[in-house]
Amino acid sequence: MEDIAWDFIAWTPEWEALAEKTDAVCFSSLAQRSASSHLTIHKLLAAARAKATLVFDVNLRQLFFSQEVLEESITLADVVKLNHEELPRVAQLFGAPVSGEVVCAQWLCRNYDLKLVCGTRGAKGTCWSVRMLCTKLRAFRQLLRIPWERAMRLRPDSFTIFCAGRHLP
Which pLDDT tens digits describe the chain residue by residue (169 residues)? Predict the structure, then answer.
């Protein structure tokens, strides 16, 4: 698909005002496929960086991503969300060990100083890596104090927001 709305994100005074008061910014690789949107997203991140939690949602769709955008975005992020198919692809692109979710997520946390890596696995649940600690959501949910059934019903974007909310300043 080409000429999608996120290909034409323009910097506006409204974006600037929003950046000054936001607690979190969620941005994706797919929305950065055009040069103008990439520039706007990075202006927003720079304007919000001092006080906001930056959440990078990896989207490896067709040929609409580059290693440069992925690395630049992961470097800026506090939290990274990806799925079970994207995690080994990202690890391979960056020369990380590709020997399982836990090892890949820990490598990302360690090498990019991330607060959290959230990896979705569809019906199989979710893998968390919080600074080198990785558990399944079933065990981790007690720390979060939410019912298992509620956590498993969250859609991926809602789940990302829920995860990032635990790391807001």
Answer: 566 666 778 889 998 898 888 888 889 888 888 888 899 999 999 998 677 888 899 988 777 778 899 999 999 998 898 888 888 889 889 888 777 777 888 888 889 988 888 877 766 766 655 554 444 444 444 444 444 344 444 444 555 655 655 555 5
The pTM score is 0.77
CB 25 within 8 A of CB 54: yes
Whole-angstrom distance, CA of residue 161 vs CA of residue 55: 8
Q: 109 burial class (0-12, 13-18, 19+ CB within 10 angstroms)? A: buried
Rounded (10°) angle between helices 67-76 and 86-93? 100
Task: Give one DSSP letter per residue of 117-165, joined into a string.
Answer: EEEE-GGG-EEEEETTEEEEHHHHHHHHT--HHHHHHS-HHHHHHHHHH
Do residues 104 and 96 lie in contact, with contact meaning Cβ atoms separated by under 8 Å? yes
Whole-angstrom CA distances from 159 to 52, 122, 145 are 18, 12, 14
H or E stretch at 79: strand 79-83
